[in-house]
Design brief:
transmembrane, alpha+beta, transmembrane helix
Amino acid sequence: MHTASFWQVTGWMAGFLFIFPLLCYLLWIAFFGFRNSMAFGITYGIFLLLEFLLALPALLVMRTIGPFPTLSAPAQALAAVGAVLAVTAFTPLLAPMARWPLYFVVCGRPPVVATKFAASYTYSVAGQRGYSVDPLSATHLFRTEQAAIRAGFHRGPD
């Protein structure tokens, strides 16, 4: 069986890490316009680059373990990306950013973003000027505004 090269797997990994979130971002722009999405796009782009850089050493380690090197390039890339996303989904400052695309898919729209930063207990919805997902302003994600209100958050300023 042909063993995939490191560069083939890296290419697939870049595709998985950048293409899916890019499609979500383009949907967001289509629904809410470009004005509210620039800051989010920059912040989330930096996060995705960090994810990619963290996945490279994970991939190098995984390629030395047991039957892993015999897997196809897409399978190796998915395993490395999955491992890094699993870790960042439970890392305090990175968790909301790692979970955002999943909430986008489950909700069918961008999720409600809430924060306890500076004891503000506020939330914002996509299209609102303050809507952003970054390590400080996004400590919680909700499917609906009602869920955020039930959790004790109030709507932030427009």
